[in-house]
Amino acid sequence: MSNPGVTTQVMQWVETRLPIFSFINHSVGTEYPTPRNLNYWWSLGSIAGVALVLQIVTGIVLAMHYVPHADMAFDSVEHIMRDVNYGWMLRYMHANGASLFFVAVYIHMFRGLYFGSYKAPRELLWWFGILIFLAMMATAFMGYVLPWGQMSFWGATVITNMFTAIPVVGEAVTTWLWGGYSVAGPTLQRFFSLHYLLPFVIFALMFLHLWALHTSKSNNPLGIDVKSEKDTLPFHPYFTTKDLVGFGVFFVILAYWVFFNPNYMGHPDNYIPANPLVTPPHIVPEWYFLPFYAILRAVPDKLGGVVLMLGAILILFVIPWLDTSRVRSATFRPVYKGFFWIFVVNGLVLGWIGANPPEGAYIIIGRIATAYYFAHFILVMPIVGWFEKPKPLPDSIAAAVLGDDSAKEAN
Amino acid sequence: MTTTTPEGGHEDGATRRDFLYIATGAMSVVGAGLFVWPLVDQMNPSADVLALASTELDLSAIEEGQAVTVMWRGKPVFVRHRTAEEIATAKTDDSAALPDIALDSDRVQKAEWLILIGVCTHLGCVPLGQKSTEVKGEYGGWFCPCHGSHYDTSGRIRKGPAPKNLGVPPYVFLDDSHIRIG
Ligand code: HEM
Ligand code: FES
């Protein structure tokens, strides 16, 4: 057993009984070959991992003080804010951490879209990513209900009422979800239980995501396959250090929000205790749900809106087959590249519409942007891939990055 | 060769062991199902939630044109003392283009008392229009600010994403000025 890194006798003793050191080494160490041209867009995955750990750690300590009861939840959060040592900081880290977690994951997903990381052989890797995204949305939604303010209560009411759109069994399913005839104490308690559980489900999904990644290996900005060892660098120390830079940036940004602007991404209405008789004049979800909220409201039909909103996420599952181009990276796809950026802008427009009341021009723009969202997947992806003439691809990663000569020398 | 067929099998291929496998498997599925149902059903409303079923209200204090909101089963119930005008519009609108067709006379027991579940049938917000200072929407009834649904003076949906009219809760007049909801 010659494993670099297993140096001491104690390590050797452990290694022969549980090969943990070689496992780590093959996952994130010197034995994991990584395309040498990965840029900082590839840092967002590990940053999302850090964000998840941060949510779990701060969440577990918040749960030591939080009371999941309709009469006490709001006051217990105020108790965390005012009385618990560092409680304000832990709560602000958890609330703003959730936002940054979504920022990281959204960038991570757009990275995948731009560089074609969802294409063969990475379809399952992509699927686990979407499952993580869905689980994150459920977790964040239920977490936002916990402080039991007006936005918590009415957000929960609007979202759970979507289930009433299901034909025939809708009412029964919704009553079952609520544990009553409206969002109330029983709803809060089950949401707390699930909010505690789901992050660990996400952790398990992340493990499968990484397992699939380590099987198909990382894609890279050129989108071409690794052809020889010359194309790669060992993960450690090259990408461990690069990822650490990303963590540093993440924590600096987190510190800005936590210490200088902690309530910017929240809603003042959530500092008013939940009142089942009064709906706030303008209900908006957290920013990370806004584009989907805009899609929900784009159709003047209840079931239609809900189906479209779900479809907006589920369609991501089939894009490995909707995209007909044989070239992965948009760098070499002159036509698709333009469409990609239009899609990004369209996503921002949807977010802006989601934050505004559904009236006048907002309705029209919301409908156009929703139609375009789906058109990107259903029309642009198959058609552009079919007629576009991609630019010539480099022979290898090493040839493109190091110049042709050095690549030849190496071979 | 003393043990040729360890399963003690028959010529047709089905053995006692196959039978035991299938029987065990089937019992496990039944057992798992019996265990899963309580796990699912515990989420349905509990006995104490089901028990909180009725609310009584004195109508004598509500002037014509006024409305009050009471809680029933954790939801707001709108009680509106309609004006003669409102009743008349509600009746004329019986023949308007209604997304969810209903006659005003089927939605009230006494024309001046309109009693409705104050929950928008779209996604559950409480529509505005109870207080005199609130907007009542384009049809003079209620307006749901969440996604813009307009209800008329009979609580019928007229415009917006909500699919149905505001619900009518079960209620009885105990005497001329008292009702029991539920
Ligand atoms: C995927 C990871 C997670 C996400 C995205 C997430 C998200 C959220 C959000 C958005 C809130 C509302 C913040 C506010 O406005 O107050 C919240 C609250 C809360 N979360 Fe999490 N959370 C995660 C993991 C956890 C874990 C593992 C626990 C451990 C039990 C936890 C415990 C709590 C508690 C007790 C609250 C209520 C206190 C408060 O409102 O600050 N969370 N969560
Ligand atoms: S909840 Fe009333 S319009 Fe959507």
- CATH class category label of the largest domain in chain A: Mainly Alpha
**What's the average pLDDT of chain A?**
94
- Overall pLDDT of chain B: 88
**Largest contact between chains:** A-B, 36 and 27 residues
Question: What would the CATH topology of the largest domain in chain A be?
Answer: Cytochrome Bc1 Complex, Chain C
Helicity of chain B, in percent? 10-25%
Taken from the alpha-carbon principal axes, the silhouette of chain B is elongated
**Oligomerization state of this entry?**
heterodimer
The biggest beta sheet of chain B reads: 3 strands, antiparallel
Series of H and E elements of chain A: HHEHHHHHHHEHHHHHHHH
Word description of this protein:
The complex is a heterodimer of chains A (411) and B (182). Chain A has 2 domains: 243 residues, Up-down Bundle (Cytochrome Bc1 Complex, Chain C); 94 residues, Helix Hairpins (Orthogonal Bundle), CATH 1.10.287. Chain A is built from 17 helices and 2 strands. The radius of gyration of chain A is 24 Å and the shape is globular. The model of chain A has no long low-confidence stretch (mean pLDDT 94). Chain B has 4 helices and 9 strands, in the order ααβββααββββββ. In chain B, strands 1-9-8 form a 3-stranded antiparallel beta sheet, with no helix packed on it. The model of chain B has no long low-confidence stretch (mean pLDDT 88). At the A-B interface, α7, α8 and α12 of A face loops of B. The structure holds protoporphyrin IX containing FE and FE2/S2 (inorganic) cluster. The site of protoporphyrin IX containing FE has 26 residues of chain A, from α3, α5, α6 and α9. Protoporphyrin IX containing FE (HEM) binds next to α3, α5, α6 and α9 of chain A.
At a glance:
The complex is a heterodimer of chains A (411) and B (182). Chain A is an all-alpha fold and 411 residues long.
How is this fold's topology laid out?
The complex is a heterodimer of chains A (411) and B (182).
Chain A: H1 9-17, H2 20-28, E1 33-35, H3 44-62, H4 73-82, H5 87-114, H6 123-145, H7 150-161, H8 170-178, H9 185-216, E2 232-234, H10 235-260, H11 290-298, H12 302-314, H13 319-322, H14 334-354, H15 361-387, H16 397-402, H17 404-410
Antiparallel strand pairs in A: 1-2
Chain B: H1 16-41, H2 47-51, E1 55-58, E2 67-72, E3 75-81, H3 84-92, H4 104-107, E4 113-117, E5 140-144, E6 149-152, E7 157-159, E8 171-175, E9 178-181
Antiparallel strand pairs in B: 1-9, 2-3, 3-4, 5-6, 6-7, 8-9
Bound molecules: protoporphyrin IX containing FE (HEM) and FE2/S2 (inorganic) cluster (FES).
